[in-house]
Each structure stands twice: as structure tokens, then as C-alpha cells.
Amino acid sequence: VGVFLATIALLFHDSVIAFDAQDIWVELTALALFSVLYIINRKHEYTREVSHFLIGSVFVLLDATWYFNRGMGLGVALLFFTAVVIGQVLIDERFRRLFTLLSLLNMAVLLAIEAFVEGFFILGLYNTGSEFPMLTKAIFIFITFVLTSWVIGRLKQEYDLAYQLTLAQQKELEQKNQEIRGINEELEEKIDERSREVIQNQKRLLKYSFFHSHNLRGPLTTLLTIHEALSLQDLTVDEMSRLITMLEEETVRLDKEVREIQYALQENEFSELYHIQAKEQK
Amino acid sequence: MKKVALVDDDPSFGYVAELLFKRVDADVELEVFQRGTTFLTHILNREVPDIVFLDINMPDLNGWEILDQLQDLEQPPTLYMLSSSIDQHDVKRAKESDLVTEYLSKPLTLDLLKKILK
Questions:
Q1: Contact assignment for A217 to B85 by CB distance below 8 Å
Q2: Residues near A157 by Cβ (< 8 Å), separated by ≥ 6?
Q3: B24 DSSP 8-state letter
Q4: Is the separation of the CB atoms in A2 and A55 below 8 Å?
Q5: How far is the C-alpha of A178 from the C-alpha of B82, rounded, in Å?
Q6: Which of B13, B19, B23 is nearest residue A222 as measured by Cβ atoms?
Q7: B7 beta partners
Q8: Which pLDDT tens digit goes with each residue over A53-73?
Q9: Do A225 and B20 touch (CB under 8 A)?
Q10: What is the 3-state secondary structure (H, E, C) of chain A?
């Protein structure tokens, strides 16, 4: 739209309208430069962003120049300049595009005014006659602005990158933390489970040893009582021989109990504990 | 003559106990019961002995269960727990029971018997 209107304005300038052409030249030059810049950079995301930013900014600057040339003062130009910088740096990508679009539209409207309204009214009445200094000035401002914008854009880009990196790192850190927490919880659970198992096994073992100490003491105390009887002076031969038989029986009973304990420890539910103990002893 | 009952499921112990009882020189008559049920039938239906030696770990009725059955006797015997158990729970339980005179831990010796029976 800008190119179209500017071309029309130029056509009017050359043939019909005798009004200031310097603004239009500046605008066309800038537009051409940025179009080239944009075309060159369009394939790279960040540089495209910067180009976009520059195009938007320059149009705003040109708007400012337009106002400035119409005697609306340096203040307005500076206002626009500040607006551009603040706008480009602070607002995010979506708004930056909108900003560019609005600037473009604004420029188009201004050009239209230049071409159709002002042009007609000042037809043949007015010519400054000194295009060159104005153009030089415009280009100088333009270059300064481009550089400033580029530096700011660059800084913003780096900042964004760093910020995104920090975000990514933070996210990663969070994720790792969560993983560690998960592992910890799992470990704690395992430890709890093992503790419970150990305690339960210990309880069972205690119960078991308790039970068997009972069983062991049965034949043992009978043996001791037999021994007591054997020390009696007046035992008959029959009594003596029966006591000796019993001695053997009770000894066998005792041996059986001991074997049962051994067997239970090795083969039954305590085999695990038995092996752990055996290992520790080694 | 004092009637004494020994309740113990181990026949060997019962026999040795009989031998020892004979040498105590006291006027006692010993009857050995290998089953708690037989002893209960005897004591509840026929006669209550003067002294009872009661084992704890027995297959059909254990010593504590027999003791429970004796709670309602009008004239309970002098009762000794005589067991191979050295479990403190058993000792404590015997002490807490009104029926039990003393908790005796096996083995049985002649001296011990003399001390009790004379």
C-alpha cells in the first residue's frame, strides 16, 4: 500500500502537483532498503524478527518526520521514536507485528493525505526548493535509528534467548528434582518394606526359637530327672535297666529336636535369614 | 496318707517321678495321669487329691486349661506347676493364680520332693 501510494504521490509530484517530494523519497528509499533487508533475512527466525522490527520502526520514524516537516515539532518526532523503542523492546512478538502493521497503515494514510489532500490544495503555490539537505537529514536519522534499533533488537534477542535458556534449565532442574524425589520415595518405600520384613522375620524367629527352646527343655529336663533317679542307692536291676533304656530314648528325642531346628532353619521360612547370617559370619 | 497326682504327658518323666516318690519316705500315694482329660474326669467325678503336680505343655489340655477347670472346686488341692518351661510368662501366670502354690521348674529332684512332701 505504501509503495503504491508513494508512487502515485510521485506521479502527481512530477506531473501535476508541485509540493514537497522529499518525504516521499525518504519513505520510498527506506521502504526499498527494508524490503531488501527483509527478503535477505526472511529465512532466519531471529533476523526476520529484527527486520520486522526495523521496518515497523522506520515507518514510525517516517511518520514522525512527516509531522516534523509539517511544523509539528521535534517533540512529536521524539515521542514517536520513544514509542518505537519502548514498543519494540517491551511488547512481545504478536504485538510487534501489529505495531508494524499499524505504522504501515498510518504511513499509507499520511501518504494519501500528502497525495490527495495537501497536494491538491497547495498545487503550484509552494516549493521549498532544497530537497537535498532534508533527504540527507532523513537518511542520517534513518541510519542512526536502524543502528539503535538493531542493537536494541539484538540485545532483546539475546535476553530472550538467555531467558528461555534459564527457563529451560529451570524446567530441567525441576524435572530432575522430581525424579530425585521419586527415587527417594521409592527408596524409602523399599527400606520400609525391608524393615517390615526384617522385623517380621525377627519376630517369627523369636517365636520359633522360643517354641523350640520349650521343646528342647522337655527331653533335657527328663534326662536330668533320670540322672537324679540313677543316683538312687537302692535301684533294682529292672528299674536300672528301664532307666538306661529311657536315657537312650530321651537322648534320641533330644537329638530329634535339635535336628528339627537345624532343618527348619536351613529349609523352611528362615532359610533366607540363615543364609544372611552365614554370609555375615564368613 | 496323702494322695498325690502328677499330670504329665511324658511317660518317661512319669516313671522316673514314681521312682523318686517312693524314696521320699513320706506317707504318700502317687497317681500319674498322662492326659489332662483323664485327670479332669478323675478329679471332678471321683476324688480331689491332696497335692497336684501339673505340667503345662500337653497335647490335649494344657496346664492352664486344666487350672481353669479347677477354679470352681470347693476344696482345691495344693497345686504345683511342674514344667520344663522357664518362660517368665508362665512363672508370672502361676504367681497370679490363686490355685497355684508354687511354680516348679524341671528337673525334679529328690530334695525338692522331700521339701514339698514332708
A1: yes
A2: A46, A49, A50
A3: T
A4: no
A5: 64
A6: B13
A7: B33, B54
A8: 666 666 666 665 665 565 555
A9: yes
A10: CHHHHHHHHHHHHHHHCCCCCHHHHHHHHHHHHHHHHHHHHCCCHHHHHHHHHHHHHHHHHHHHHHHHHHHHHHHHHHHHHHHHHHHHHHCCHHHHHHHHHHHHHHHHHHHHHHHHHHHHHCCCCCCCCCHHHHHHHHHHHHHHHHHHHHHHHHHHHHHHHHHHHHHHHHHHHHHHHHHHHHHHHHHHHHHHHHHHHHHHHHHHHHHHHHHHHHHHHHHHHHHHHHHHHHCCCCCCHHHHHHHHHHHHHHHHHHHHHHHHHHHHHHHCCCHHHHHHHHHHHC
Contact flag B12-A229 (C-beta cutoff 8 Å): no
The mean pLDDT value for A184-198 works out to 93
State the Cα–Cα distance between residues A33 and A17, nearest whole angstrom: 26
| Nearest partner of B90 among B112, B65, B64, judged by Cα | B64
ipTM topping 0.85: yes
Of A224, A239, A250, the CB nearest to B19: A239
Question: Is the predicted pLDDT of residue B33 greater than 80, yes or no?
Answer: yes
Write the Ramachandran bin of A71: left for phi over 0, alpha for psi from -120 to 50, otherwise beta.
left
Q: Which residue has the cell 471321683?
A: B46
Give the CA angle between residues A264, A267, A270 to the nearest 5°.
Answer: 65
The type of residue at A195 is S
Residue A267 has pLDDT above 60, yes or no: yes
Q: What single DSSP character describes residue B42? A: I
B5 bridge partner residues: B31, B52
3-class SS shares of chain B: helix, strand, coil, % to 5: 40, 25, 35
Q: List residues of B whose CB lies inside 8 A of any A CB.
A: 10, 12-13, 15-17, 19-20, 23, 57, 84-87, 105-110
Other C-beta atoms within 10 Å of A28: how many?
18
CB-closest option in A214, A225, A250 to B108: A225
Q: Do A225 and B84 touch (CB under 8 A)?
A: no
Backbone angles phi, psi at A21, to 5 degrees: -100, -5
Instruction: Give backbone dihedrals phi and psi of A114, rounded to 5 degrees, phi first.
Output: -55, -50
Cross-strand pairs, B52: B5, B79
- Is B109 a residue whose pLDDT tops 90? yes
pLDDT at site B72: 85
CA neighbor of A77 nearest in space, from A68, A88, A89: A68
